[in-house]
């Protein structure tokens, strides 16, 4: 029996959650609260929280490249460290 294919939307939602987990782990390693990390990133705490959860306005979080770079900088990591492998959510 074939494995059901994950839709592009579902795959992006899984990828966004994986990014969120990496953002949260980096924030916690640095010992920052969400408030502090958001302030240092130049975004609201609510926006930062949604990115960590992988959700935003009812769909997968999709921060701008500028916001993503600011978050990485605030967390003291390279942006690429926040990106999971590209095959997250694929059916293999």
TrEMBL record:
InterPro entries given in the database record: Cro/C1-type_HTH, Lambda_DNA-bd_dom_sf, TransReg_Diox_bact_type
Keyword DNA-binding tagged: yes
Record-linked Pfam families: HTH_31 (PF13560)
Region annotated Disordered, chain positions: 29-62
Tree of life domain: Bacteria
Gene3D superfamilies the UniProt entry points to: lambda repressor-like DNA-binding domains
Keywords: DNA-binding
HTH cro/C1-type domain mapped to chain residues: 23-82
Keyword DNA-binding: yes
PANTHER family reported in the protein's UniProt record: HTH-TYPE TRANSCRIPTIONAL REGULATOR, METHYLPHOSPHONATE SYNTHASE
Protein name as annotated: Helix-turn-helix domain-containing protein
Organism: Cryobacterium breve
